[in-house]
Amino acid sequence: MHIPDGFLSGEAVAVGWAAGAAGLAVCLRNVHAEQRERDLPVAGLAAAFFLVGDAPLFPIAVGTQGHLLGGLLAVALLGPWLGAVTIAVVSAIQAVVLGDGGITTLGLGIVNLALLPAFVGYPLLRGLERLLPRTPGGIAVAAGGAAWVCVVLASVLFFVEFSLGAVVEIDGSTVAAGTIGVYAVLGIVEGVITALILRAVLGVRPDLVRIGGAVRAARAKESLGRLRTEGGGP
Known about the structure:
By secondary structure, this protein is mainly alpha-helical. It has helices at residues 10-34, 39-53, 71-78, 80-96, 106-131, 136-165, 172-204, 213-231, and strands at residues 58-61, 64-66. The protein has one domain: Arp2/3 complex 21 kDa subunit ARPC3 (Orthogonal Bundle). The chain is built from eight helices and two strands. A two-stranded antiparallel ribbon has the order 1-2.
């Protein structure tokens, strides 16, 4: 879902950079306010994972492929602000080093892949979390659903950007089928992978997961109860 150089007008590129820079500024300001010491090593490992995980292309239909995005998983693990910054760094490396998407269109890529999960996906995840059991399984299901929504919304944004900013006339139905249709299917894969990874991490190290506060609290309460039982306390 990266946009190559030369496909969009200068106005569209400028809007993308302005929106991306403004959103990242908000994220960076909040990262400094909420950062935990343990988050930076996890962010580095997550960035490496997303670089590798985004590389495989999944065949969806004849001549059509897609790749995982990872934005919702990042904000679930790291919180909305550091998660967005991590995905933005990954997107920049992909564009500059790997040639995956253009450099001039990187601003729009950051909006689609990093800022959308932070400003839309994370609140959605929190909302779904309240509707489901506050268990590792419930949180994983909420994350999987939110991941699918983020992937589909990112593909819709991509389609809108391409439709409004393309330098040549395009067939809207073809672009829609090749993006929204493809990523609606790929979003199911991303949702399942997101849920499985979060479920596994919450099962062994909930302290590493920003979204795992309820699991940490439940385990702390359970440990306190065992200590009281073993110590004969009230």
